[in-house]
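Researcher: Sequence recovery benchmark, item below. Answer with residues only.
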């Protein structure tokens, strides 16, 4: 059984959500979004470490939240996040326990992740090195130039909307982040850094319920999901 860690970045602001507090601490049906996201991973066999990078002013609040979820098998680490999500993840990777073999990164703002998807991502990453949860693109996608003229309509059969978790063998994600740091490269997600060093990443199909809460409408949908109404 592989020893596993989960990094849940929670340093994002609540600006687009219209909130005065970071969105990870906004409540959905009486429970902070971050807490719901953490709970998705509790009970995963082999999980040994949960690392949460968060805003400096919310470190104590996050530690308090984690204290209610403590387990004799899981070490919780709360650290200060960086100015970019990638920097927050890099800070977290530096404090992984030596025993960890597989690392998952999951958005704090995705609180409705099913455990069977988590297990599948860990399983595939253990075999292939890297796995990303996602859903096939439903809409037609257009690629434009810098002035908005359409240059291409890619075949959506091969297009996916990436979600999290994104799971990697520890040595692979560390190599990817070290390379990005050395080159000053800023990617759009963790998988893009791994792809950049030439490693293959497997896509795992998830579902739309694993939504990322970003805008006020997302929060309304999240309330309905939490109450079991959709």
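Model:
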């Amino acid at each position: 059984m592989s020893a596993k860690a989960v990094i849940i970045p929670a340093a994002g602001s609540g600006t687009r959500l219209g909130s005065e507090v970071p969105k990870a601490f906004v409540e959905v049906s009486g429970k902070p979004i971050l807490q719901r996201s953490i709970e998705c991973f509790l009970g995963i066999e082999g999980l040994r470490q949960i690392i949460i990078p968060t805003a400096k002013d919310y470190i104590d609040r996050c530690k308090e939240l984690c204290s209610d979820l403590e387990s004799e098998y899981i070490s919780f680490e709360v650290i200060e996040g960086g100015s970019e999500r990638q920097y927050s993840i890099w800070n977290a990777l530096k404090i992984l326990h030596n025993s960890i073999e597989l690392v998952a990164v999951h958005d704090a703002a995705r609180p409705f992740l099913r455990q069977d998807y988590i297990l599948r991502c860990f399983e595939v990453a253990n075999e292939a090195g890297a796995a990303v949860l996602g859903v096939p693109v439903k809409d037609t996608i257009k690629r434009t130039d810098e002035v908005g003229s359409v240059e291409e309509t890619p075949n959506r059969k091969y297009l996916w909307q990436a979600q999290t978790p994104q799971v990697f063998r520890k040595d692979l994600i560390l190599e990817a982040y070290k390379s990005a740091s050395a080159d000053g490269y800023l990617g759009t997600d963790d998988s893009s850094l791994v792809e950049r060093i030439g490693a293959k990443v497997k896509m795992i199909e998830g579902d739309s319920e694993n939504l990322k809460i970003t805008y006020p409408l997302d929060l309304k949908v999240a309330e309905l999901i939490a109450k079991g109404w959709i």
